[in-house]
Design a protein that fits this description.
alpha/beta; globular
């Protein structure tokens, strides 16, 4: 584990496991890198270096009180600094679920030479339609206000559980993710939601320029992300897609075995130069 200093001095939690082709996972909004724990051992066993990290305001990273410390540009820079630490010598595969996928796309547009592949999981390229963007911002504000008023325990006991720990809360991995989510500070998550997630620029019109192999994964029952997954698969020049049966939004926990199988198939083809 490490504490990586961002350009503004914020300390970011990061950890790396194994050796080989680096695969960096970015978490969904309001969750922590513990959400990715089910992927560590299976990928390390197949010869990949798994890198986990927490966004600023999340998990074990610093949560600045100043709202000005939060922006999409800063988050992309933060991701680059984690890569500098974990994978300085070779391009990495970037994986992200929900907001983590959008952050990965933004980084790929900024520094394509540093990205070997993309895993875009129950994610989307942002909102081009103004009304859809307004609805998204309103939803983010509602969540941020809820966190500030009622705290983390109430948050994971609300309907938000389906988009943070998944539809199978009895699973040990879901319980571990829940404990890490509850341990967070609401102020950082609220700032991140309002200043980063709500205002993140869409990348729909730039997808065609991302000539990087990509695997688009979506859970069968994640209705909100079926259409975004189709858009990314159609517009990214080197994309393929997989639907995980029986899974919802947190597909990597809900259906970890099927998810890991799909990811490893893609990664091994990528490593062999076939993707």
């Amino acid at each position: 584990m490490a504490r990586i200093l961002a350009s503004d001095g914020v300390a970011l939690h990061a950890e790396a496991h194994g050796t080989g082709l680096p695969v960096l996972f970015s978490c969904p909004l309001n969750t922590t890198c513990e959400n990715w724990r089910p992927q560590v051992d299976p990928l390390v066993a197949r010869g990949f270096r798994v890198v986990l990290w927490d966004f600023r305001g999340h998990g074990r990273s610093d949560a600045p009180d100043d709202p000005a410390a939060y922006s999409m540009e800063q988050v992309v820079d933060d991701l680059g600094r984690v890569l500098d630490w974990a994978a300085p010598a070779a391009p990495a595969v970037l994986g992200g679920l929900s907001f983590g996928g959008l952050a990965s796309l933004h980084f790929a547009l900024r520094a394509p030479a540093r990205v070997r592949g993309l895993l875009l999981i129950d994610s989307g390229p942002g909102f081009k339609n103004p009304e859809a963007q307004e609805r998204w911002e309103a939803g983010v504000e509602k969540t941020a206000s809820f966190l500030e008023r009622k705290g983390m325990q109430a948050f994971v006991e609300s309907r938000a559980a389906a988009t943070t720990i998944g539809s199978r809360p009895e699973l040990p991995a879901a319980q571990a993710a829940l404990r890490a989510i509850v341990a967070q500070q609401p102020v950082g998550l609220a700032h991140f939601g309002r200043r980063v997630a709500a205002l993140a620029p869409p990348v729909i019109d730039e997808l065609a320029s991302i000539r990087i192999p990509a695997l688009v994964i979506v859970g069968e029952h994640d209705a909100a992300y079926q259409r975004p997954a189709q858009v990314m698969q159609a517009r990214l020049p080197l994309a393929e897609s997989v639907t995980i049966p029986g899974a919802g939004h947190i597909v990597n926990i809900e259906a970890a075995e099927a998810f890991n199988t799909a990811v490893l198939r893609f990664l091994e083809r990528l490593r062999a130069g076939e993707a």
